[in-house]
Design a protein that fits this description.
InterPro entries: Mal/L-sulf/L-lact_DH-like_ah, Mal/L-sulf/L-lact_DH-like_NADP, Mal/L-sulfo/L-lacto_DH-like_sf, Malate/L-lactate_DH-like. This is 3-dehydro-L-gulonate 2-dehydrogenase. By secondary structure, this protein is an alpha+beta fold. The protein folds into three domains: 77 residues, Hypothetical Oxidoreductase Yiak, Chain: A, domain 1; 166 residues, Ribosomal Protein S8, Chain: A, domain 1 (2-Layer Sandwich); 33 residues, Wheat Germ Agglutinin (Isolectin 2), domain 1. Helices cover 43% and strands 18% of the residues. It is built from twelve helices and 13 strands. Helix 1 runs parallel beside helix 12.
Amino acid sequence: MIDLQIPFEKLSSTLKEILLKYGFTEERAHRCAVLFAKADLDGVRSHGANRFFLFLDFIKKGLVNPDKEPVALSQLAMFERWDGQEGVGNLNADFAMNRAIQLSKEFGISCVTLQNTNHWMRGGNFGWQAVEAGCIGICFTNTIPNMPAWGGSEPKIGNNPLVIAIPREKGPVVLDMAFTQFAYGKLSIAKAKGELMDYEAGFDEKGNLTKDPGTVIDNLLGLPIGLWKGSGLSMVLDLLAAVLSGGNASHEVGKSGHESAVSQVFLCFDPRKLELRDWIETKSDALIDDLKSSRTFGEKSVRYPGENTLETRNRNLNNGVPISEKLWAELQNELNS
């Protein structure tokens, strides 16, 4: 599969022009397109343009409403609940994290929740949104059931991605992870290439561990990270998202057969307001310096979450964003259809 190097502005403008054909306003089309393109810019290709046609399909099916924006359900000081009205997932999440940032600047700590929203695509975008505003950000979402509870043989819980982002002058620490060993977007890319995963990715229909991404996708039996521990943590995040937002839990999300009307939580901490600035840098640097001093097996290096993102971003800004030739042709066909 051949990759083309597409300038970031060209990629985002192409996505924007397509979105304008689907009922987006100019401003919302631009913001939504940039969020998609940023995933590819930062090297997270599983949740960027590769997901764009799935997103368009959800619009066609009426599962995503381009013109709907969040409406407030409850606003109690630093805690707010919003209804996403089955609007655009990445735009709703962008709004919610921005609201959490604003509230943290006022109160120091904030929690903003969304019910009835849609897939946020790359969750890491919203961790970066927080650290770029100088804040600590934590956010998580539930999903359609796509992995078994530990010991189970059917998909009952979601892989419920979690993002934790901590600002740091020498490079933010940004963890962006789902609770399956491999995100389904990454499995889909490997399946398209005819590749097996490096490690067991899930179960087949007989309960055997498998590295075959297609088998895992077909059965929705992703392997929980940490085995029973990941299964338990995923369930707790699902429960928290549903309780704090008043929205759907994963088992309710799955009733439609599609991943829509999910629940999300956005937490924010302003280090300046909370008087953490005196030590946040020294604590972060000391921990990472110690991590980097670790002995390794062979010539491998130890990395912290998000370490390579800025390097990847700058390289792709200079050289162009890698997009498969096939996907770029499909985008051009959609644009000109």
